[in-house]
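Re-run requested by the PI after the first attempt was lost when the workstation crashed. Everything re-entered from the original request form. Ligand of interest: PPS.
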Amino acid sequence: MTTLISPHGGKLKENLLSDEEAQELKIKAADYPSWDLNERQLCDIEMILNGGFSPLNGFLEKSDYDAVVKKMRLADGTLWPLPITLDVTEEFSKQITKGSNISLRDQEGVLIAVLNVSDMWTPDKKKESLSVFGTTDQMHPGVNYLFNKANPVYLGGEVSGVESPAHYDFKHFRDSPRELREKFKKLGWRKIVAFQTRNPMHRAHVELTFRAAQLAEANLLIHPVVGMTKPGDIDYYSRVRCYEHIIKYYPELTTTLSLLPLAMRMGGPREALWHAIIRKNYGCTHLIVGRDHAGPGKDSKGNDFYGPYEAQELLAKHQKEVGIEMVPFQMMVYVKERAEYVPANEVDKEQSVLNISGTEFRRRLQEGLDIPEWFSYSEIVDELRKTYPPRNRQGFTIFFTGLSGSGKSTVAKALMVKLMEAGGRSVTLLDGDIVRKNLSRELGFSREHRDLNILRIGFVAAEITKNGGIAICAPIAPYQATRQKVREAISSVGGFFEVFVSTSLEECEARDRKGLYAKARAGIIKEFTGISDPYEAPKSPELEIDTQNCLPDEAAQRIILRLEKEGYIR
Ligand code: PPS
């Protein structure tokens, strides 16, 4: 990395060109190799361009990367805890050499910046993971991203920003570091305490932030992350609507809300330090750090990755150097006898503490159960109930899998008409044959083509599910890993229900309704599932049905009963 304009908190290092310079560069960039930035890279580049990542002037070079990984510092000694690198595919890296310029574009092809590549290397991801996250356990979202999503080659170098990534939503709440600093100055705010969050805020958060602001005698900035947070978090659109409600509970003269386009790594202590540097760049003087700040959840053995107050301890060591003061906070709990929230360490032994965990809160939303007034505000709960309607108003997918001739299509059709008879929901059948005629006509039956076919079905089913419909899929779907991918994609937007139609190969072959088994045995049809191609049976489907001992009508009725039991239909 070339020079650092400033240590933390001095002049902002923005990396956007003037309009004329940008115009000129746009013309040149048309000839440069072009890299489409993914979601995380877009967040990173936005922070590099707007100065949120000051003092960085681009993506880390190898010497900076090594120093950051090893000792949380850039090569020149400046504190910087997390590696900000541009990861690209091997194929792309072959087009470039040191000194090349490359265009960095968003998903629509808009030129965001040009990177002058001054370094290119294949990182030791294991070493990076152990050093940065303290683990290689892939239950950690940051580790998981590093091993499964990040590309193998890193590019480093200075960037010249042409334009910031576009946002069309919540524009009135989006401020660059410069804009926020100017706003504070205009308002005469000298002390500002920032509150970092990736969750909807409830009463406990309001109490905590009030106390923190009072303690620091500072104004308050609610600064939620709207870039990338922990997978499975509540989407930011719903969260921001909640923040819009909650902001009304604060005095207008001393509190403001602004959105931060950061891609979190869930890196616990190191991430807390990073958050502090970023908030310093945004003009804040204080940062609230609570219990388990930027915590990644549990590891594969069910243990916490970091100690609950490890982030506070690390920031305490470095806050002077960063130039921001930490306001450490214990978890806030509701004390029934006092009818108020207090920090957990201030509760008397005899007093009863009430708490609703995130998981419990979600369960209550999903099942349409009561959420007490002491926990949240009615506007917030109403807003979240819209995002998490009770199960009988959520979309879901029933995914049949089984051999050809096992009875998938017949049961799927029977189920579809039964659901349509009940009415009130839109039902779409994505049968294997129908899909192959309409969506996957060009595909054959190699593993690659089958996977593509199933992923397409999964994509359509996820869209239907997300929009509250019912999708019934009935392909063979012979591979476990592909079915798992579909399950994950759909479960994040609604219900997923796998039905394994386990009718035996002997029975399917004896039925041979389409005459395909005979042809497969004769070698006329190649790669035929069960005969000359594998079928991996599901290990834990939601339901298993053998159509040898059960009529299609009965099978469909069994599924209906299970759906009712799980709350998907009423
Ligand atoms: S897959 O593996 O999930 O992509 O298969 P799918 O899209 O469900 O397509 C299966 C239907 O295609 C016919 N068919 C074959 N099946 C398996 N293997 C081979 N080689 C093959 N060639 C054609 C067959 O009729 C399947 O329909 P179903 O309804 O399952 O009997």
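Saved to the shared folder this time. The chain has 20 helices and 19 strands.
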